Amino acid sequence: MRHFLGVLAVVGPLMGCSVDFQGWAGMKDQPKAMAYRESDVFADERAMRVPPPGTVPREYKDRSRRVRTGGDTVETSAGIPLTLTRELLEQGHKSFDIYCATCHGVRGDGVSPVARKMGVRAPPSLLVLPPYADGHYFNVIGRGFGLMPGYAEKLTPEQRWAVVAYVRALQASQRVRLEDVPPEARERLLQEKAP
Ligand code: HEC
Question: What's a Pfam family in this record (predicted)?
């Protein structure tokens, strides 16, 4: 059988005959509606249908225009309005690793493959920024900043605050004083530091 097909494949075109193996020609030329083309299926002869008035795209459901477009901002001087819990920080950690680490690095220090290749202005280290208030971070995440895109469509306001909290944790992790550590952890740190 394989020989037979092989011979047909070579001899067929030579003889100018078109062999329709398993209906291939039919699949190439199937009746379907093409974007912006006419169609005789509908009375208005348009292939593309007009959505009923008031239709909301599925991805816009439950989201205000302000949130979608990043207009959802706070006073730049605002602080984190949510209770800081371990759960919130862990949520922020997860979102940060998904949406921010690609550019700013998993430690937020601006070391990432993308940063190395971004020629115009590389994503900065988030550990050495000026003393911005939490609200500034919230607004940057939602609206974007210069070359950085906004993430209002991906992260709800709560998720953005969680990311801000996690960025604060990353920053704090760079210069924690012994007094800031819970007493039970101090002993362990001192032992680890001892030569
Ligand atoms: C596509 C790469 C990219 C991603 C992803 C990204 N950033 Fe940025 N970010 C940048 C770049 C580039 C800049 C500098 C923009 C400029 O100066 O034009 C920047 C700047 C910043 C700044 C500094 C703003 C200031 O006032 O100086 C903060 C804070 C920041 N990003 C936080 C985040 C957080 C948090 C996330 C995740 C939600 C994130 N970024 C995701 C590329 C990125």
Answer: Cytochrome_CBB3
Q: Relative to the CA of 141, which ligand 1 atom is closest?
A: 38
Pick the CATH number of 64-175 from 1.10.150.240, 3.40.50.20, 1.10.760.10, 3.30.70.240: 1.10.760.10
Task: Quote the CA–CA distance of 17 and 74 in Å, as a whole number.
Answer: 71
pTM for the model stands at: 0.70
Identify which of 91, 103, 134 to mutate to test ligand 1's pocket (most ligand atoms within 8 A of the CB): 103
The domain locations on the chain are 64-175
What is the Cα–Cα distance from 47 to 36, expressed in whole angstroms?
7
User: Tens digits of per-residue pLDDT, 127-178?
Assistant: 999 999 999 999 999 999 999 999 988 999 999 999 999 999 999 988 888 8
Structure tokens at 154: 């991906």
